[in-house]
């Protein structure tokens, strides 16, 4: 097989590859590629690179996504371009994107109740008159301290170390007890050290919280992009990758556990501790991330009737998952609710204590999939709405994630203005800005109820008239030019196109239909909903007014909206710090009735109605 | 490092080794060496080989054990001879010894109560209206069949295969349930197949019984020498090897599990089944074998106060021990009683049901260590007597194990006669023949009460006078020539020397002292013992009359002696076939009081008294 060399600029990173490898694969291998929203399927056109040397003819996929000028300048899609000779490539956004990840939280009070208990004891010396085994003397010492468990067990690995541990420590040892299991015996008194990490594994980002399990104190928060993103931006493309690629499941499993191990390393370094002091990990994740994390095929989640392999909460040894913490530790995986309503939603419910509320509350966790739960202590119903990637900026003409360079908010109040994440010139718009933009079009009468741009000469609102010149022809329809080419970082204009509005309509229509159907399932009307809680990153960044104007959330509820921060992360923390709460999560997940939207009678009509806008 | 070549004859087995390697090491590596009674410490002189080419000077160790003529002929000890140049070696007994292993048994009735249950079920199809996970549907199907376990759990490995297993089998699966654990899910109905293997791991031999766990039927019995013997013939030399040699523990652990895997292979081949159909293994072993099997250091057993690391009964996954059976299986390790009274004694007690007996019974399992248990349903006491290797033929001038070529019984009734295992010319004598020989000397007045040969001219018994010529001078004392040089397989005479009688006195003295001390501990006299049960290979081969004549067993009890076959093996079988009996074994082991002989007041005097013979 012919070997060729590819050099990435800036940075002059040089990588040998087999001829025929795509640029995307080479980027992944060299650690440069983390952000391929469509997973390399040639659908999103986001993986632009400029070929400086070794250029060849463009492909049909390049032609679909790039202008004639771009093609002439050597711009190509990394996923579509094969490396057949030595090449030099310029990466358009060479720095790994610095994502904004929600880490503030509104925690609720709860009691710490550790899963694992550490007990220090001086074990009796063996004697000729008593001839008790090491294990028996350890058990009796624990019983003497009130830690009396009938038929205490230990894994072989612990028993194998026991004789040396006792003798090397002069019989002064700390025993790590989990239920009826002795998971570890350590030299000396280590009871003061009991750390753990709570993880919220999202499709896009992974957040880890390093906690002191004795005090409950949060020591560090770390986060990273989910490296699975290089194999597909959404859960469906990852399910496809896991099923179709050789070792696809293993690759995705190791990608997420590898990222978790790195995060653990980062957190313990920052906190000045070491990973061997970690005895617990808790995990909240959507059902697909949950299965991939566990190394279980998510195949059945992706096809009708969309069932998961397992929903039950699990306790797993870290070694089984390749997680590098103390071997005496355990991994606590929160239960899923149903095929598309995962352990992340269980974590949100655990944090929000929905099952204890007297009044009916609507909880929305909006992402590529929107998880919606409606209910109170009497009854809870949930559904998952396939919003698609619009809220995350994917499949939007100038769309991008909520990262450095993204316009995140637009205001039409006092002439057009916008804010950019990280300041500086903008690169594109993220979901929250798309919401603001379209909400503005609705309020200024620039689109009709079907979402179609009015002809510029038909605009009547004074605010709209001021923006008239920004309406330009794009792909034979109208588009709104938010930023002109000269003002952007890459020299291309930032637009909101007719197609972008359609994408948003599909997304908001799915969520709104889900809310509507849950109301029907509960037999309640909008006014019965006393509170709306927005969880997750997008929910916390969006402008509630815009969400209500476009009909993502019923307008009547605008004054009842609250954001609750990264509730899934908070739920994971609570589950890690309290065995009782983790146990409660199991009951909680089982107590939620799941409504499958796709098979709900009249879903298509309800969905279509909700894609429309209500004009004043 | 210089490499040299050693060729073994017969067979022309050629092995490259580093210069300086001993012949014993080379034999071990080439699979030729299994029988080094002293473990290569130059103590027993049993590892004779003849150097045909590449001979060098003999060592001081050779000189201790070999005659001048042997040395001149090139006979050397394999353990003492280094290979410094290319060599050709003749092995004296090149065929692996075919040991006689007791496999007949007197089984008691008990109810089969499998540890693992197989349940066949048709699992419901997933549906859009129910959206239940694969795991939940499996649980519900099991519950529908009456197998309802609260909070049923499954290891990750089972969950990972579950989606494929269900779909590839059209939802017709067999679930392997152990307690609250689902250990396996198999395609189709496999409930008819549930096999297991009970192991009795002895210091010298390993016996395996292939059982049908559904019917209790014994399908095959297989046995092998314990390959650990190449690292030491007795438990003390193995404890030393495990502690002193690099990776010694691991080597011994893998030697025994490797042998077990081979035995499993042999048994399933014979029975026409496969190892994946085995779901259970039970293990009875003395404490040292128990620890080595589990990979736990036996170091503390070998030094005062002689405690084990663990006595408690254990259930272990086969993979943790490297045992190659179905991954859904489990290994059931019987509990030890104390440092030198192991799980093999527990198995004997389980088979003999000592704790249910109304009358006081003495159970003897005699080997290098003699395990002695005395008691009834009211109380049980046990001790371990360090008999030394005499009963196994080691450190006896013409001694050997009870293998092909061994004289196993001697009769003085009608002139001198003997029987040879495998017939043919004899090679040496095993323990049971040594007993007969010395018993004859006692009855014919050829030795005094201290065990010393009388001068030939002082013999008076007519039977003794006939044997007068067989008394020869050997190492400045008298010896009894049992077989003259011309009648043996190797051309050397077979003797019972003064030293051999001393060794036997130490051995029988230790056992008899143990019996005596247990009687004291119970506060009973000989006549209170209503039954004597002899367990194990030696106990079943020895002549009870000889044992009583030499005082190994009190003479008053001769008529009350019964042999109970390989009771340890029977106990292992019972524990494998019945979870209730395995559970009972735990209580049983805890209900036996251990008497440490070494620290018993007056032990030395009692021991010394019991080394004497009672003459008529």
UniProtKB/TrEMBL annotation, chains A, B:
GO terms for molecular function: iron-sulfur cluster binding. Gene3D superfamilies: 3.10.20.30, 3.10.20.880, Domain of unknown function (DUF4445). It holds the Pfam family Raco_middle. Residues 2-95 form the 2Fe-2S ferredoxin-type domain. It comes from the Bacteria. InterPro entries: 2Fe-2S_ferredoxin-like_sf, 2Fe-2S_ferredoxin-type, Beta-grasp_dom_sf, Corrinoid_activation_enz, Raco-like_middle, Raco-like_middle_sf, RACo_C, RACo_linker. This is Uncharacterized 2Fe-2 and 4Fe-4S clusters-containing protein, contains DUF4445 domain. Coiled coil: none annotated.
């Amino acid at each position: 097989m012919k070997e060729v060399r590819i050099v990435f600029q800036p940075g002059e990173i040089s990588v040998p590859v087999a001829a025929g490898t795509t640029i995307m694969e080479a980027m992944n291998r060299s650690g440069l590629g983390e952000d391929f929203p469509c997973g390399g399927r040639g659908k999103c056109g986001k993986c632009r690179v400029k070929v400086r040397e070794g250029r060849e003819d463009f492909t049909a996929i390049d032609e679909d996504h790039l202008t004639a000028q771009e093609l002439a300048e050597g711009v190509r899609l990394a996923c579509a371009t094969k490396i057949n000779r030595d090449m030099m490539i310029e990466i358009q956004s060479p720095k790994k994107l610095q994502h904004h990840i929600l880490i503030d939280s509104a925690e609720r009070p709860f009691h710490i109740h550790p899963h694992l208990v550490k007990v220090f004891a001086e074990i009796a010396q063996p004697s000729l008159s008593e001839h008790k085994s090491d294990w028996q003397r350890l058990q009796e010492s624990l019983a003497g301290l009130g830690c009396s468990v009938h038929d205490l067990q230990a894994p072989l690995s612990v028993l194998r170390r026991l004789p040396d541990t006792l003798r090397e420590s002069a019989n002064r040892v700390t025993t790590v007890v989990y239920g009826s299991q002795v998971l570890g015996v350590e030299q000396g008194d280590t009871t003061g050290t009991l750390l753990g990490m709570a993880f919220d594994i999202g499709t896009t980002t992974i957040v880890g919280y390093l906690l002191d399990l004795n005090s409950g104190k949060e020591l560090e928060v770390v986060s990273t992009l989910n490296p699975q993103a290089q194999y597909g931006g959404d859960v469906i493309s990852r399910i496809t990758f896991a099923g179709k690629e050789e070792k696809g499941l293993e690759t995705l499993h190791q990608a997420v556990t590898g990222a978790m191990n790195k995060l653990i390393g980062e957190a313990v370094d920052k906190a000045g501790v070491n990973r061997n002091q970690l005895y617990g990990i808790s995990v909240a994740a959507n059902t697909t991330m949950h299965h991939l994390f566990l190394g279980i095929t998510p195949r059945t989640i992706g096809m009708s009737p969309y069932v998961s392999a397992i929903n039950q909460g699990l306790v797993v040894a870290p070694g089984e998952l390749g997680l590098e913490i103390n071997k005496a530790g355990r991994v606590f995986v929160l239960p899923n609710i149903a095929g598309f309503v995962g352990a992340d939603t269980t974590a949100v419910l655990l944090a929000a204590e929905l099952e204890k509320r007297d009044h009916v509350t609507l909880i929305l966790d909006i992402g590529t999939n929107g998880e919606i739960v409606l209910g109170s202590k009497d009854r809870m119903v949930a559904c998952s709405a396939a919003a698609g990637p619009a809220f995350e900026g994917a499949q939007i003409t100038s769309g991008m994630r909520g990262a450095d360079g993204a316009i995140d908010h637009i205001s039409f109040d006092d002439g057009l203005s916008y804010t950019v994440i990280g300041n500086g010139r903008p690169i594109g718009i993220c979901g929250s800005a798309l919401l603001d933009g379209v909400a503005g079009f609705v309020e200024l009468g620039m689109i009709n109820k079907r979402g179609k741009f009015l002809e510029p000469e038909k605009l009547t609102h004074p605010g709209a008239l001021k923006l008239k010149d920004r309406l330009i022809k794009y792909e034979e329809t109208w588009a709104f030019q938010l930023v002109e080419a000269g003002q952007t970082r890459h020299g291309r204009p930032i637009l909101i196109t007719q197609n972008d509005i359609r994408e948003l309509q599909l997304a908001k229509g799915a969520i709104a239909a889900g809310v509507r159907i849950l109301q029907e399932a509960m037999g309640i009307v909008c006014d019965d909903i006393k509170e709306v809680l927005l969880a997750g990153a997008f929910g916390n960044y969006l402008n509630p007014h815009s969400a209500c104007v476009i009909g993502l959330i019923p307008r009547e509820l605008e004054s009842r909206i609250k954001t609750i921060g990264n509730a899934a992360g908070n739920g994971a923390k609570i589950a890690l710090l309290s065995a009782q709460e983790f146990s409660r999560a199991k009951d909680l997940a089982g107590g939620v009735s799941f409504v499958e939207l796709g098979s709900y009678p009249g879903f298509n009509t309800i969905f279509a109605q909700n894609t429309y806008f209500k004009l004043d």
